[in-house]
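sry for the spam today, last one i promise. C-alpha cells for design, 233 residues
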C-alpha cells in the first residue's frame, strides 16, 4: 500500500483502475495493488496487533469521556506528518494508540491521561557499532533531546534485518530491542551493550531505529542510524 501525493489536474480519486485500488485514509490518498494482502506475522507485528486491539478496547471501555476529550484536544493541537512529509490531522484515538503502543512495548502500564504539553518529544541522534562475532551492538550515548540523567525520559530501540553492503533498500523485519531509561540517580553508562536479534555476517549493514518518549509522555518520530558489522576488537 502506498501513499500518493497528487500533482496538478488531479485532486481526488476513488475506486479501482486495472489492478490498483484508490482510497483515502486519515493520512491522505492511498493507492494499493488489488491483491490479497500477505500476512507475515513477524513477532513485532503480532505484538503491535495485540496491543492495538487492547488499546482500542481500553479507549472505549476504560477511559473516561473527559480523558477522550483531552486526547482529541492534544491530537488536534499537535502537528502530525505522514511518510511523504505532508501535514495531516489524526484523531484522539490514533494519538492515544500511537503513544501507548510504545509504552506497552516497555512492559509499562497504559498512560490514560493525554500529554499536558502540545507537540512532540524532541529529536534524538544515535550511533552504534555492530559486532558480528558476539552478536552485540555497542550503542554510543544518544544526542538530542534524550537525557540519560532525566527521570521520565525513555529511548525505544529497534533493529532491522541485516542487508548486504551497498544495497539500497528499506530495512525490513524491525524487532524491538530494549528501552534506555533516563535516571537522575543511576544513569546508564555508555557505550551500552545491546543484544542483537539477528545473526549477522561481517560486512553486512545493520539499521537501528530509535523513538523517544519524554517526561510529558509525548513521543518523537523515528530516527535511524546504520553500522557495518565487524568483529569485536
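last one done:
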Amino acid at each position: 500500500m502506498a501513499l500518493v501525493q497528487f500533482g496538478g489536474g488531479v485532486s481526488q480519486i476513488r475506486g479501482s483502475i486495472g489492478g490498483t485500488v484508490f482510497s483515502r485514509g486519515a493520512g491522505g490518498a492511498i493507492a494499493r495493488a488489488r491483491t490479497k494482502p500477505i500476512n507475515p506475522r513477524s513477532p513485532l507485528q503480532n505484538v503491535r496487533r495485540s496491543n492495538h486491539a487492547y488499546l482500542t478496547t481500553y479507549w472505549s471501555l476504560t477511559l473516561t469521556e473527559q480523558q477522550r476529550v483531552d486526547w482529541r484536544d492534544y491530537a488536534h493541537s499537535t502537528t502530525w506528518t505522514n511518510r511523504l512529509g505532508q501535514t495531516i490531522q489524526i484523531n484522539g484515538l490514533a494519538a492515544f494508540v500511537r503513544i501507548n503502543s510504545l509504552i506497552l512495548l516497555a512492559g509499562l502500564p497504559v498512560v490514560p491521561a493525554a500529554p499536558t504539553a502540545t507537540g512532540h518529544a524532541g529529536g534524538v541522534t544515535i550511533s552504534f557499532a555492530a559486532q558480528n562475532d558476539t552478536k552485540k551492538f555497542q550503542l554510543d550515548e544518544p544526542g538530542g533531546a534524550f537525557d540519560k540523567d532525566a527521570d521520565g525520559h525513555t529511548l525505544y530501540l529497534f533493529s532491522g534485518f541485516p542487508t548486504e553492503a551497498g544495497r539500497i533498500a528499506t530495512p525490513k523485519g524491525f524487532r524491538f530491542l530494549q528501552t534506555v531509561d533516563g535516571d537522575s540517580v543511576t544513569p546508564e553508562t555508555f557505550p551500552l551493550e545491546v543484544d542483537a536479534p539477528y545473526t549477522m555476517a561481517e560486512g553486512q549493514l545493520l539499521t537501528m531505529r530509535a523513538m523517544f518518549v519524554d517526561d510529558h509522555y509525548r513521543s518523537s518520530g523515528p530516527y535511524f542510524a546504520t553500522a557495518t558489522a565487524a568483529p569485536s576488537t
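The mean pLDDT is 86. ok im logging off now
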